[in-house]
Amino acid sequence: MTILGISAFYHDSAAALVRDGAIVAAAQEERFSRVKHDARFPRHAIAYCLEAGGIHDGGLDAVAFYDKPLQKFSRILQSYVCVAPRGLRSFMMALPLWLKEKLWLPVEIERGLRECGVHSPPEFLYPEHHESHAASAFFPSPFQRAAILTIDGVGEWATSAIGRGKDNTVTLLQELHFPHSPGLLYSAFTYFAGFRVNSGEYKLMGLAPYGEPRYVQTIYDHLIDLHDDGSFHINLEYFDYVGGLAMTNAKFDRLFGGPPRTAESEITAREADLARSVQTVTEEIVLRMARHAKALTGEEYLCLAGGVALNCVANGRLLREGIFKDIWIQPAAGDAGGALGAALFTWHQIHRNPRTADNVHDAMNGACLGPAFSDEEIAAFLETHGYPARKLSDAEWAPEIARLIDGQSVIGLVNGRMEFGPRALGNRSIIGDARSPRMQSIMNLKIKYRESFRPFAPSCLVERVNDYFELDRPSPYMLLVAAVRKERRRTADARAASIRDQINDTRSDVPAITHVDFSARVQTVDAAVNPRFHALLEAFEARTGCALVINTSFNVRGEPIVCTPEDAYRCFMRTEMDWLVLGSFLLDKRAQPPWHEEKRWQKDFVLD
Amino acid sequence: MAAAALLFWALHRPIPAAIVAVLGVCLLVTGQLFPRAFGVIDAALGRAVGWAGTIVAWCILAPFYLIVFTLLRLLLALAGKDPLTRAPRGTATTAWVDRHPTPRTIDDYRHLY
C-alpha cells in the first residue's frame, strides 16, 4: 500500500511517501520552488515523491492531508466572532483565501495529482493536525511505547497535545486549546524582537544566551497564568493575534518599555533579555508539560513533535532533567513533518498495520529522504555549463576535503540525499574548521550574510561526542543543545561583555561552535547512517586531532537550503565560499568562470 | 469575442459589441506579434481584475462581517459563552482539555471536519 502525505497552506508545505510502512521519500516544497517556507500546494515535492517511489497513475492507494480544514475554518470563524467588529482587515485577508482555495482541498489535491500524472484519484483521508504531529513523533521513533508531546502554534483548535504511543497506535489524551499556545507565545516575542514569525524563532533562541532573564516574572505576572501541569491561560489583553494583523499590541509595548524592534535595526540588550526571558518561560512550560505527560501516561520514553520541539535548548534541558529515560524528536518537527505523520497515521492507525521498533534505531534514514544526484548527473551538469572540476576517487575524497578544511577553507558540500526538515546534516551543508576563532564571523558575514551573533553547530563523530560535550548519547538530528566540556572552555564567564565582545571571544578550543553560554547544538554522525560524512570527520580527526567540524545549512540568509547541483553552484558563486563538493567532484572557486547576474540576487530572498 | 457576440446578438447592442470586438482583436494581434508587450498588458489586466475582486470582496464581505459577526458576538456575550476561554479562570488548576476516547473509524478520517 502506497500513501502520499501532504501538508500545505500555512507554512513549510511538504510531501512524503510511505510504502507498506517504510518511508520512501519526503521533502519540503521550498527546496524546489526556492521560496523559503513556501506554503503553496506542494506540487514539486509531490512530483519528487511520486518519482522516487516509481508511482504512476493508479499506483497510489491513499492521500493523507495533515489536518482537518473545516475544523480549522470553524475555529477561525469563531475567533472572529469573538472579536468582531474588530478584526475586519484580518478577516478580509483570510476569508478570500479560504473561499478560493482552502475550502476546496480535495479539488486542489486532485488537480495537483493530475499535474503529476496521477489521474485516478485515490482515497483521501484527513487526520487531525496534532494526530499527524503525534504520528510523526511516535511511529518513526525507536520506541515500542512512549508518551507523546506535541507543541506548536495552532492546528484546528489544539495548540499542544499529550498522548500515548503503543505499538501501531497513537492516542491523544489531552489538548491545550487556542488561543493558549506555547508556540504563539514564542512567536509573539519573535515578532517583538524584530524577526519574522514562523521563521525567526530559532534566531530568538540563538539570541537568548546574550541576555538576562529579567522579564521572566513580568511574563508570569501579566502574560500567562502557568499551571503546575504546564498548561496555561494566555492574557489576550497584551496580544493581537486573534483577529489582528500583528502578534502583540500597544499594551505589550508599554509592558516592555517601547515598540517592537524594527527589522534589521541594531539588536539591543532589551531584545536579548526578552529572548532569554521567553526562552526560560518556554523551557519551564515544556518541562512541566513533560512531567505531566509522564504522570498521565506512566511511560518511560517521550516522543516530541510540533514547531516548539525544534527548540533544541529546551530539548537539551528536558533530557538533562531526566524525566524520561530517553527522548526522540522528529527531525522535521514543524508542519512539514505533518505530511509524514499523516501518511504514517494512515498506514498504522487507520489501516491497522503492525509496526516494529527495537528501542535503538529509528525509521528516518538519518532524515536523508530527499533527492540525490548521481556522479553521472553531476558530470553532465558540469560539462553542460563548462564548470571546471576535479573528480576525487573514493580513497581521496575524505582526506582531500579534510585537508582543505584544515587549511581554513570554507566548503559547500552536496552529498547524497537531501535532508527532510530544517537542518542540514552533512548532505547539503557548508562546513569549516571549528577550531578557528574567526570562523564564526567569517561564515556569518561573508558566506551566510546573516547576523553576526548567530552561532554555528558542530557535526561530531558519534563515538567522540562525550570528549567534547556533556552529552552521553547520540544527537543525530541536531535537536539537542549540550554544554561544551569544562576542560575545553577558555574563559570563565563571557556574559559580562557586550554582545559584540562576546561574539569575538575565544570561548573554547572549538570556539566557532561554542555559544556564549558554552553550549552547542550538537549533531552526531554515525557511520551506519552517513558513511561518507563520517569518513570525512574521521579523516579530519586523523589530520588534526579534532573530531568535529562546523556544519551550517547550505544557503544564504532568506534562501531555502540548496537542493540541486545548480542551486549549490549558484550559492557557491554568490558567496565567498572557497570550494564546492558536488558528489565526487571538487570545484575550486578560483578556477571558475566569472559569475554575472543581471539583477541583485539578494532581492530574491525575503529576510527572516 | 464571446462578450462581443453576446452584446451583438443577445443584447442587440452593436456599438458596444464592435468596441469589445475591436479591443479583442487588438489584444489577439498584439499577443501574436508582440508577446512581450502583450505580457505587460496581460499583467496590467490581471492587476485590474485583482483590484476589482478586492473591491467586490470588501463591498460584500465587510458589511457581512460587521453586521453578522458583531451580532453573533453580542449573542455569545448575552449567553455568557466564550469559545476562546479568554477570561482568567481564577481557581482553575489546569487548562488541559480531555479528549473523549471514542474509537474512530476510517469514515471519520474521510471527512474534512
Describe the structure.
The complex is a heterodimer of chains A (608) and B (113). Chain A has 608 residues and is an alpha/beta fold. Chain A folds into three domains: 2-137 and 334-362, 2-Layer Sandwich (Nucleotidyltransferase, domain 5); 182-326, Nucleotidyltransferase, domain 5 (2-Layer Sandwich); 375-604, DHBP synthase. Chain A contains 20 helices and 21 strands. In chain A, the strands form four sheets. In chain A, strands 13-21-20-14-15-19-16-18-17 form a nine-stranded mixed sheet, sandwiched between helices. In chain A, strands 3-2-1-4-5 form a five-stranded mixed sheet. Chain A has a five-stranded mixed sheet with strand order 8-7-6-11-12, sandwiched between helices. In chain A, strand 2 (14-19) and strand 3 form a beta hairpin. In chain A, helix 7 (182-192) packs antiparallel against helix 11 (269-297). Chain B starts with a helix and ends with a helix. Chain B has helices spanning 2-10, 14-33, 35-79, 106-110; one strand at residues 97-98. The mean pLDDT of chain B is 87. Chain B has four helices and one strand, in the order H-H-H-E-H.
Biggest interface and which pair forms it?
A-B, 50 and 34 residues
Tell me the total number of β-strands of chain B: 1
Number of helices of chain A: 20
Helical fraction of chain B:
55-70%
| Overall outline of chain A | globular
**CATH architecture call of the largest domain in chain A:** Alpha-Beta Complex
